[in-house]
Specification:
Elements: H1 2-7, H2 10-49, H3 55-76, E1 90-93, H4 101-115, E2 118-121, H5 133-145, E3 152-155, E4 173-178, H6 181-194, H7 213-219, H8 232-237, H9 249-262, E5 263-268, H10 272-282, H11 284-287, H12 290-296, H13 313-320, H14 323-344, E6 347-350, E7 353-356
Parallel strand pairs: 1-3, 1-4, 2-3, 4-5
Antiparallel strand pairs: 6-7
Protein backbone atom coordinates (compact mmCIF):
# COMPACT_ATOMS: atom_id res chain seq x y z
CA UNK A 1 0.00 0.00 0.00
CA UNK A 2 2.91 2.33 0.77
CA UNK A 3 4.48 1.70 -2.66
CA UNK A 4 1.13 2.42 -4.35
CA UNK A 5 0.84 5.67 -2.40
CA UNK A 6 4.24 6.80 -3.70
CA UNK A 7 3.54 5.83 -7.33
CA UNK A 8 -0.09 7.11 -7.57
CA UNK A 9 -1.09 10.77 -7.86
CA UNK A 10 -2.95 12.15 -4.79
CA UNK A 11 -6.31 12.22 -6.64
CA UNK A 12 -6.09 8.50 -7.52
CA UNK A 13 -4.84 7.69 -4.00
CA UNK A 14 -8.05 9.18 -2.59
CA UNK A 15 -10.22 7.22 -5.05
CA UNK A 16 -8.43 4.00 -4.19
CA UNK A 17 -8.97 4.58 -0.47
CA UNK A 18 -12.69 5.27 -1.03
CA UNK A 19 -13.11 2.15 -3.18
CA UNK A 20 -11.38 0.06 -0.53
CA UNK A 21 -13.69 1.46 2.14
CA UNK A 22 -16.84 0.70 0.10
CA UNK A 23 -15.66 -2.85 -0.51
CA UNK A 24 -15.09 -3.38 3.21
CA UNK A 25 -18.59 -2.07 4.04
CA UNK A 26 -20.13 -4.42 1.46
CA UNK A 27 -18.28 -7.41 2.91
CA UNK A 28 -19.35 -6.53 6.46
CA UNK A 29 -22.97 -6.26 5.29
CA UNK A 30 -22.85 -9.70 3.63
CA UNK A 31 -21.25 -11.23 6.73
CA UNK A 32 -24.01 -9.73 8.87
CA UNK A 33 -26.71 -11.20 6.59
CA UNK A 34 -25.06 -14.63 6.74
CA UNK A 35 -24.96 -14.45 10.53
CA UNK A 36 -28.67 -13.53 10.63
CA UNK A 37 -29.56 -16.45 8.35
CA UNK A 38 -27.44 -18.78 10.46
CA UNK A 39 -29.26 -17.56 13.55
CA UNK A 40 -32.67 -18.21 11.99
CA UNK A 41 -31.62 -21.68 10.90
CA UNK A 42 -30.34 -22.38 14.38
CA UNK A 43 -33.72 -21.46 15.78
CA UNK A 44 -35.48 -23.75 13.29
CA UNK A 45 -33.15 -26.64 14.16
CA UNK A 46 -33.90 -26.13 17.85
CA UNK A 47 -37.61 -26.21 17.11
CA UNK A 48 -37.26 -29.43 15.15
CA UNK A 49 -35.35 -31.02 18.01
CA UNK A 50 -38.27 -30.49 20.36
CA UNK A 51 -40.55 -33.50 20.89
CA UNK A 52 -43.66 -31.66 19.67
CA UNK A 53 -43.52 -29.39 16.65
CA UNK A 54 -46.75 -27.97 15.23
CA UNK A 55 -47.57 -28.11 11.53
CA UNK A 56 -47.19 -24.35 11.05
CA UNK A 57 -43.61 -24.41 12.33
CA UNK A 58 -42.75 -27.31 10.03
CA UNK A 59 -44.18 -25.45 7.09
CA UNK A 60 -42.28 -22.30 8.00
CA UNK A 61 -39.05 -24.29 8.15
CA UNK A 62 -39.79 -25.96 4.81
CA UNK A 63 -40.60 -22.64 3.15
CA UNK A 64 -37.40 -21.09 4.48
CA UNK A 65 -35.29 -23.97 3.21
CA UNK A 66 -36.94 -23.85 -0.22
CA UNK A 67 -36.26 -20.10 -0.46
CA UNK A 68 -32.62 -20.62 0.51
CA UNK A 69 -32.21 -23.32 -2.16
CA UNK A 70 -33.92 -21.22 -4.83
CA UNK A 71 -31.76 -18.19 -4.00
CA UNK A 72 -28.61 -20.27 -4.08
CA UNK A 73 -29.51 -21.72 -7.48
CA UNK A 74 -30.26 -18.26 -8.84
CA UNK A 75 -26.96 -16.86 -7.51
CA UNK A 76 -25.07 -19.80 -8.99
CA UNK A 77 -26.60 -19.11 -12.41
CA UNK A 78 -27.75 -22.68 -12.81
CA UNK A 79 -30.44 -22.01 -15.45
CA UNK A 80 -29.63 -23.67 -18.74
CA UNK A 81 -31.60 -21.34 -20.98
CA UNK A 82 -31.26 -17.62 -21.56
CA UNK A 83 -35.07 -17.43 -21.45
CA UNK A 84 -36.96 -17.56 -18.16
CA UNK A 85 -38.97 -20.78 -17.97
CA UNK A 86 -42.30 -18.93 -17.96
CA UNK A 87 -41.19 -17.01 -21.06
CA UNK A 88 -40.51 -20.22 -22.97
CA UNK A 89 -44.07 -21.60 -22.73
CA UNK A 90 -46.21 -22.28 -25.79
CA UNK A 91 -49.96 -22.91 -25.57
CA UNK A 92 -51.90 -24.43 -28.48
CA UNK A 93 -55.67 -24.07 -28.55
CA UNK A 94 -56.82 -26.22 -31.48
CA UNK A 95 -60.30 -24.81 -31.29
CA UNK A 96 -63.34 -26.80 -32.41
CA UNK A 97 -65.78 -24.65 -34.45
CA UNK A 98 -68.86 -23.28 -32.64
CA UNK A 99 -67.78 -24.15 -29.12
CA UNK A 100 -67.34 -20.51 -27.94
CA UNK A 101 -63.85 -20.63 -29.44
CA UNK A 102 -63.91 -17.02 -30.69
CA UNK A 103 -65.30 -15.84 -27.37
CA UNK A 104 -62.47 -17.49 -25.46
CA UNK A 105 -59.77 -16.44 -27.94
CA UNK A 106 -60.75 -12.78 -27.54
CA UNK A 107 -59.89 -13.09 -23.85
CA UNK A 108 -56.32 -13.93 -24.90
CA UNK A 109 -56.23 -10.97 -27.32
CA UNK A 110 -57.42 -8.65 -24.56
CA UNK A 111 -54.72 -9.87 -22.15
CA UNK A 112 -51.68 -10.33 -24.41
CA UNK A 113 -50.29 -6.79 -24.03
CA UNK A 114 -50.82 -6.60 -20.29
CA UNK A 115 -49.43 -10.08 -19.60
CA UNK A 116 -46.68 -9.81 -22.24
CA UNK A 117 -47.27 -12.78 -24.53
CA UNK A 118 -47.96 -13.23 -28.24
CA UNK A 119 -51.18 -14.47 -29.86
CA UNK A 120 -51.00 -16.12 -33.28
CA UNK A 121 -53.95 -17.30 -35.36
CA UNK A 122 -53.33 -20.47 -37.39
CA UNK A 123 -55.28 -19.85 -40.59
CA UNK A 124 -55.43 -22.92 -42.84
CA UNK A 125 -56.61 -22.97 -46.47
CA UNK A 126 -60.39 -23.55 -46.62
CA UNK A 127 -60.29 -24.15 -42.84
CA UNK A 128 -58.90 -27.64 -43.45
CA UNK A 129 -58.09 -29.06 -39.98
CA UNK A 130 -55.62 -31.62 -41.39
CA UNK A 131 -52.15 -30.34 -42.31
CA UNK A 132 -49.96 -31.87 -45.00
CA UNK A 133 -46.89 -33.69 -43.73
CA UNK A 134 -44.59 -30.88 -44.89
CA UNK A 135 -46.80 -28.29 -43.16
CA UNK A 136 -46.71 -30.34 -39.99
CA UNK A 137 -42.90 -30.19 -40.07
CA UNK A 138 -42.95 -26.45 -40.75
CA UNK A 139 -45.45 -25.79 -38.00
CA UNK A 140 -43.56 -27.81 -35.38
CA UNK A 141 -40.34 -26.03 -36.30
CA UNK A 142 -42.01 -22.61 -36.11
CA UNK A 143 -43.63 -23.23 -32.76
CA UNK A 144 -40.55 -24.66 -31.08
CA UNK A 145 -37.80 -22.41 -32.51
CA UNK A 146 -39.49 -19.03 -33.08
CA UNK A 147 -38.01 -17.41 -29.98
CA UNK A 148 -39.34 -13.95 -30.80
CA UNK A 149 -42.89 -15.30 -30.42
CA UNK A 150 -42.34 -16.82 -26.98
CA UNK A 151 -44.29 -16.97 -24.79
CA UNK A 152 -46.94 -17.71 -27.39
CA UNK A 153 -50.62 -18.58 -27.59
CA UNK A 154 -51.46 -20.31 -30.90
CA UNK A 155 -55.08 -20.89 -31.89
CA UNK A 156 -56.83 -22.25 -34.95
CA UNK A 157 -59.20 -24.90 -36.30
CA UNK A 158 -56.48 -27.57 -36.53
CA UNK A 159 -56.58 -31.21 -35.45
CA UNK A 160 -54.33 -32.32 -32.59
CA UNK A 161 -50.70 -32.76 -33.63
CA UNK A 162 -48.35 -35.01 -31.65
CA UNK A 163 -45.08 -33.07 -31.33
CA UNK A 164 -43.15 -36.07 -30.00
CA UNK A 165 -43.21 -37.67 -33.47
CA UNK A 166 -40.94 -34.86 -34.63
CA UNK A 167 -38.30 -35.33 -31.91
CA UNK A 168 -39.37 -32.34 -29.83
CA UNK A 169 -38.09 -32.46 -26.26
CA UNK A 170 -40.40 -29.85 -24.77
CA UNK A 171 -43.95 -30.11 -26.06
CA UNK A 172 -46.43 -27.23 -26.11
CA UNK A 173 -49.34 -27.12 -23.67
CA UNK A 174 -52.63 -28.10 -25.32
CA UNK A 175 -56.00 -26.75 -24.13
CA UNK A 176 -59.48 -26.93 -25.68
CA UNK A 177 -63.23 -26.48 -25.18
CA UNK A 178 -65.98 -28.81 -26.42
CA UNK A 179 -69.76 -28.61 -26.54
CA UNK A 180 -72.86 -30.76 -26.52
CA UNK A 181 -72.67 -32.26 -30.05
CA UNK A 182 -76.24 -31.45 -31.15
CA UNK A 183 -76.10 -27.91 -29.78
CA UNK A 184 -72.81 -27.39 -31.60
CA UNK A 185 -74.27 -28.66 -34.90
CA UNK A 186 -77.37 -26.46 -34.57
CA UNK A 187 -75.21 -23.41 -33.86
CA UNK A 188 -73.00 -24.16 -36.86
CA UNK A 189 -76.05 -24.71 -39.12
CA UNK A 190 -77.45 -21.25 -38.41
CA UNK A 191 -74.02 -19.62 -38.37
CA UNK A 192 -73.46 -20.66 -42.00
CA UNK A 193 -76.75 -19.03 -42.97
CA UNK A 194 -77.03 -15.93 -40.82
CA UNK A 195 -73.57 -15.29 -39.35
CA UNK A 196 -73.26 -13.72 -35.91
CA UNK A 197 -72.95 -10.37 -34.13
CA UNK A 198 -69.14 -10.54 -34.18
CA UNK A 199 -68.78 -9.73 -37.90
CA UNK A 200 -72.37 -9.03 -39.01
CA UNK A 201 -71.41 -7.73 -42.47
CA UNK A 202 -69.53 -10.84 -43.55
CA UNK A 203 -71.38 -12.98 -46.10
CA UNK A 204 -71.56 -16.63 -45.03
CA UNK A 205 -71.41 -19.68 -47.24
CA UNK A 206 -75.11 -20.63 -46.94
CA UNK A 207 -76.48 -17.10 -46.71
CA UNK A 208 -79.94 -16.84 -48.28
CA UNK A 209 -81.01 -20.35 -47.28
CA UNK A 210 -84.01 -19.77 -44.96
CA UNK A 211 -84.68 -23.43 -44.17
CA UNK A 212 -84.78 -24.10 -40.43
CA UNK A 213 -82.81 -26.88 -38.76
CA UNK A 214 -86.02 -28.79 -38.09
CA UNK A 215 -87.02 -28.58 -41.74
CA UNK A 216 -83.56 -29.81 -42.71
CA UNK A 217 -83.85 -32.82 -40.39
CA UNK A 218 -87.37 -33.71 -41.56
CA UNK A 219 -86.32 -33.64 -45.24
CA UNK A 220 -83.00 -35.43 -44.67
CA UNK A 221 -80.81 -32.50 -45.73
CA UNK A 222 -77.01 -33.01 -45.83
CA UNK A 223 -76.18 -30.01 -43.57
CA UNK A 224 -77.99 -31.53 -40.60
CA UNK A 225 -77.14 -35.19 -41.23
CA UNK A 226 -75.76 -37.27 -38.37
CA UNK A 227 -72.39 -37.47 -40.18
CA UNK A 228 -71.99 -33.70 -39.54
CA UNK A 229 -71.80 -34.47 -35.82
CA UNK A 230 -68.45 -36.22 -36.37
CA UNK A 231 -66.06 -33.37 -35.55
CA UNK A 232 -64.98 -33.15 -31.93
CA UNK A 233 -63.67 -36.72 -31.90
CA UNK A 234 -61.37 -36.28 -34.94
CA UNK A 235 -60.16 -32.89 -33.67
CA UNK A 236 -58.87 -34.59 -30.53
CA UNK A 237 -57.83 -37.80 -32.29
CA UNK A 238 -55.40 -36.04 -34.61
CA UNK A 239 -53.81 -36.47 -38.03
CA UNK A 240 -54.16 -40.24 -38.44
CA UNK A 241 -56.39 -41.35 -41.30
CA UNK A 242 -58.57 -43.44 -39.00
CA UNK A 243 -59.44 -40.32 -36.99
CA UNK A 244 -61.52 -39.05 -39.88
CA UNK A 245 -63.34 -42.30 -40.63
CA UNK A 246 -66.85 -41.44 -39.45
CA UNK A 247 -67.98 -43.76 -36.67
CA UNK A 248 -64.53 -45.23 -35.92
CA UNK A 249 -64.32 -46.71 -32.41
CA UNK A 250 -60.51 -46.50 -32.62
CA UNK A 251 -60.78 -42.75 -33.23
CA UNK A 252 -63.01 -42.34 -30.16
CA UNK A 253 -60.58 -44.27 -27.97
CA UNK A 254 -57.63 -42.26 -29.29
CA UNK A 255 -59.48 -38.98 -28.70
CA UNK A 256 -60.14 -40.00 -25.09
CA UNK A 257 -56.50 -40.96 -24.61
CA UNK A 258 -55.26 -37.65 -26.00
CA UNK A 259 -57.71 -35.65 -23.90
CA UNK A 260 -56.41 -37.21 -20.69
CA UNK A 261 -52.71 -37.46 -21.57
CA UNK A 262 -51.98 -34.59 -23.96
CA UNK A 263 -54.22 -31.75 -22.78
CA UNK A 264 -53.65 -29.68 -19.66
CA UNK A 265 -57.33 -28.78 -19.45
CA UNK A 266 -60.41 -29.27 -21.63
CA UNK A 267 -63.45 -27.21 -20.70
CA UNK A 268 -67.05 -27.24 -21.86
CA UNK A 269 -68.90 -24.36 -23.48
CA UNK A 270 -71.70 -24.55 -20.93
CA UNK A 271 -69.23 -23.85 -18.08
CA UNK A 272 -66.78 -21.52 -19.82
CA UNK A 273 -66.26 -19.21 -16.82
CA UNK A 274 -65.08 -22.11 -14.66
CA UNK A 275 -62.68 -23.15 -17.41
CA UNK A 276 -61.22 -19.63 -17.55
CA UNK A 277 -60.92 -19.45 -13.77
CA UNK A 278 -58.94 -22.69 -13.60
CA UNK A 279 -56.67 -21.61 -16.47
CA UNK A 280 -55.92 -18.38 -14.63
CA UNK A 281 -54.93 -20.36 -11.55
CA UNK A 282 -52.80 -22.87 -13.47
CA UNK A 283 -51.25 -20.52 -16.07
CA UNK A 284 -51.20 -17.00 -14.59
CA UNK A 285 -48.36 -16.02 -16.94
CA UNK A 286 -50.99 -15.95 -19.70
CA UNK A 287 -54.37 -15.69 -18.00
CA UNK A 288 -53.84 -13.35 -15.04
CA UNK A 289 -56.97 -11.19 -14.91
CA UNK A 290 -58.97 -13.40 -17.31
CA UNK A 291 -61.79 -14.26 -14.90
CA UNK A 292 -62.45 -10.64 -13.97
CA UNK A 293 -62.26 -9.65 -17.63
CA UNK A 294 -64.79 -12.32 -18.57
CA UNK A 295 -67.20 -11.23 -15.83
CA UNK A 296 -66.96 -7.46 -16.02
CA UNK A 297 -64.82 -6.50 -19.02
CA UNK A 298 -65.79 -4.82 -22.24
CA UNK A 299 -67.57 -8.02 -23.33
CA UNK A 300 -65.46 -8.51 -26.46
CA UNK A 301 -65.57 -12.19 -25.56
CA UNK A 302 -69.32 -12.43 -26.22
CA UNK A 303 -70.44 -13.76 -29.59
CA UNK A 304 -73.91 -14.93 -30.55
CA UNK A 305 -75.23 -16.62 -33.68
CA UNK A 306 -78.22 -14.71 -35.03
CA UNK A 307 -81.55 -16.21 -36.11
CA UNK A 308 -80.88 -19.45 -34.23
CA UNK A 309 -84.02 -21.51 -33.44
CA UNK A 310 -83.83 -24.34 -30.91
CA UNK A 311 -84.60 -27.73 -32.47
CA UNK A 312 -87.73 -29.62 -31.55
CA UNK A 313 -87.70 -32.82 -29.50
CA UNK A 314 -88.53 -34.76 -32.66
CA UNK A 315 -85.39 -33.49 -34.43
CA UNK A 316 -83.23 -34.21 -31.42
CA UNK A 317 -84.64 -37.71 -31.03
CA UNK A 318 -84.01 -38.48 -34.69
CA UNK A 319 -80.33 -37.45 -34.41
CA UNK A 320 -79.91 -39.37 -31.14
CA UNK A 321 -80.87 -42.60 -32.87
CA UNK A 322 -77.62 -42.41 -34.85
CA UNK A 323 -74.54 -44.37 -33.76
CA UNK A 324 -72.48 -41.32 -34.67
CA UNK A 325 -74.33 -39.17 -32.15
CA UNK A 326 -73.91 -41.88 -29.52
CA UNK A 327 -70.12 -41.87 -30.01
CA UNK A 328 -69.80 -38.09 -30.11
CA UNK A 329 -72.01 -37.82 -27.04
CA UNK A 330 -69.95 -40.48 -25.28
CA UNK A 331 -66.84 -38.40 -25.91
CA UNK A 332 -68.58 -35.24 -24.70
CA UNK A 333 -69.76 -36.96 -21.50
CA UNK A 334 -66.24 -38.32 -20.98
CA UNK A 335 -64.75 -34.82 -21.34
CA UNK A 336 -67.40 -33.32 -19.06
CA UNK A 337 -66.72 -35.90 -16.35
CA UNK A 338 -62.97 -35.24 -16.56
CA UNK A 339 -63.52 -31.47 -16.38
CA UNK A 340 -65.80 -31.77 -13.37
CA UNK A 341 -63.26 -34.02 -11.64
CA UNK A 342 -60.48 -31.47 -12.15
CA UNK A 343 -62.75 -28.64 -11.04
CA UNK A 344 -63.82 -30.48 -7.88
CA UNK A 345 -60.18 -30.63 -6.81
CA UNK A 346 -59.46 -27.00 -7.74
CA UNK A 347 -62.38 -24.87 -6.55
CA UNK A 348 -65.04 -24.68 -3.85
CA UNK A 349 -68.43 -22.99 -3.83
CA UNK A 350 -69.48 -20.57 -1.12
CA UNK A 351 -72.64 -18.44 -1.12
CA UNK A 352 -73.16 -19.21 -4.79
CA UNK A 353 -69.65 -18.08 -5.76
CA UNK A 354 -66.70 -20.23 -6.78
CA UNK A 355 -63.28 -19.61 -5.30
CA UNK A 356 -59.95 -21.32 -5.93
CA UNK A 357 -58.39 -23.56 -3.32
CA UNK A 358 -55.11 -22.41 -1.80
CA UNK A 359 -51.93 -24.45 -2.18
CA UNK A 360 -52.45 -27.68 -0.30
CA UNK A 361 -48.95 -29.15 -0.26
CA UNK A 362 -45.56 -28.16 1.14
CA UNK A 363 -42.05 -29.59 1.26
CA UNK A 364 -40.35 -31.10 4.27
CA UNK A 365 -37.34 -33.28 4.98
CA UNK A 366 -35.21 -31.45 2.43
CA UNK A 367 -31.74 -32.97 2.13
CA UNK A 368 -28.89 -32.24 2.19
CA UNK A 369 -29.41 -29.74 4.99
CA UNK A 370 -28.27 -26.17 4.48
CA UNK A 371 -25.14 -25.39 6.47
Amino acid sequence: MGLLRIMMPPKFQLLAILAFGVAMLFLENQIQKLEESRGKLGYYVEQLAKPRVDVQTKRAIARHEVREIEQRHTMDGSRDSALDESDDVIIIYNRVPKTASTSFTNIAYDLCVKNRFHVLHINTTKNNPVMSLQDQVRFVKNVTSWREMKPGFYHGHVAFLDFTKFGVKRKPIYINVIRDPIERLVSYYYFLRFGDDYRPGLRRRKQGDKKTFDECVSTGGPDCAAEKLWLQIPFFCGHSSECWNVGSRWALDQAKYNLVNEYLLVGVTEELEDFIMMLEAALPRFFRGATELYRTGKKSHLRKTTEKKPPTKESITKLQQSDIWKMENEFYEFALEQFQFVRAHAVREKDGELYLLAQNFFYEKIYPKIN
